[in-house]
Amino acid sequence: MIYSISLYYSLILLLLPLATGLPSSINTTTKHTKPYDVCILGGGATGAYAAVRLQDRGKRVVVIEQNSQLGGHTETYYLPNGSHVDYGVQGVFDDQLSRKFFSRLGVKWHRVLPSFKGEDFVDFTTGRMAESPVGLVQSLLALVRYRVALRQFPFLNKGLYEFPDPVPEAIFRPLRDFVEENSLEDVIPMLFFWAHGVGNMLDMPALYTFQNFGVPHISAVLGGYITPEKGMYELYRAAAAVLLNVRYQTQVVDAKRSDSGVTLTVQHLNGTQATIEAEQLLVTHPPTMEKLRGFDLTSEESDLFSRWSWRNYYVAVTSNSGIPDGRYVTNTNPRTGPGFLPEMPFESLIQYMGVPGHPNTKIVGPMNFTAEDAKQLIGSDFARMKTAGTYSIREPEVVAFANHSPTTMMVSPEDIQSGFYRRLYALQGQRSTFYTGLTFCSDYSSLLWAFTDTILERMQQG
């Protein structure tokens, strides 16, 4: 997920080469035997993209979305004066696939550029200023070494979880081991900037940091990002305008699947139910046991989907905080060892996005960390800064808030080693059901769209 852009964005360009990818083509042969060709579960970045692509090819598509709008992790706060703050996804890779999708929807874009004037390092546990964990030049040089070290994992270059057999030990061991073995301590703060959603990342399998900031992501930093001129949500507002069948505030309560199609019972927030029949089902949200309640899961599906752990992730826009405009305030804890990383739960960053008086923030916690917990953490962090006299904190108010949980879907090192992802990918096409989204590919829109194109091609083949 592209949640933040910083000074790293502009300076990395001096040191590293560029790589991009191209989209797949899809056959358009159509066969009508049920009311819908494809039912898509989830209208986030992946689901909305798939729906537009399929509808453009003459497919009869229906999207089931539990929220009141499309876009998933895209959140845009619009102010009365016409300005806006993107406090979820802030941009997508500036590549051919992204530009093509923007153009299809008639959405004008511009390049994403850093909007801040400097970075402060603050220990959020005390509210006091802290030293920078590493100099910028040292960090960038370490990034070059990090990218070189990633060459041993070419199978990760598209953000997929398709591993050789046996699975390389380095990807399921803790990131801490990979860092120590390759003398990459100086790159830790930069990894955390992009991969903070992993949580206590040094203790987690290295795979999940690689999938948040690996070769394709570094290459994308070089190529830059684009964003709609009027905020990221404009992309999904435009998608909603062209899609013919989207059922908002609706979820599946019963699902029967077979090789000849699927029959779903869906329920609106108001309690009304409807039956949907489709030739194929495309699941784009994380396939957790909770989200698939009411599905006729096989023993294999139940075994796989019950193994997930994840991070709860929240985003917010604040006002009247007293944080100076133009500053990034990075959470830094000098007592935790290399990188000075905060420990969960934490606010990773208070980020200026170019709109005076309205910084945004990102909060990461374990699976039991609630939205109310996140809001309380924001308030207590500001209170500690006020007590310490670090900033002239006033009366902070959360003016926009969103829950992006679950995210950073993970399994144990033992599961990675024993072939969990091989088994997961083998589910594609079983009983007319296909999958895409952040559990099957790195959670960055452009990578997700490219992977989704390959799944749509498989669906066309039956």
Automatic annotation (TrEMBL):
<feature type="signal peptide">
    <location>
        <begin position="1"/>
        <end position="21"/>
    </location>
</feature>
<dbReference type="InterPro" id="IPR036188">
    <property type="entry name" value="FAD/NAD-bd_sf"/>
</dbReference>
<protein>
    <submittedName>
        <fullName>NADPH-dependent FMN reductase Lot6</fullName>
    </submittedName>
</protein>
<dbReference type="Pfam" id="PF01593">
    <property type="entry name" value="Amino_oxidase"/>
</dbReference>
<feature type="domain" description="Amine oxidase">
    <location>
        <begin position="50"/>
        <end position="288"/>
    </location>
</feature>
<dbReference type="GO" id="GO:0016491">
    <property type="term" value="F:oxidoreductase activity"/>
</dbReference>
<dbReference type="InterPro" id="IPR002937">
    <property type="entry name" value="Amino_oxidase"/>
</dbReference>
<dbReference type="InterPro" id="IPR050464">
    <property type="entry name" value="Zeta_carotene_desat/Oxidored"/>
</dbReference>
<keyword id="KW-0732">Signal</keyword>
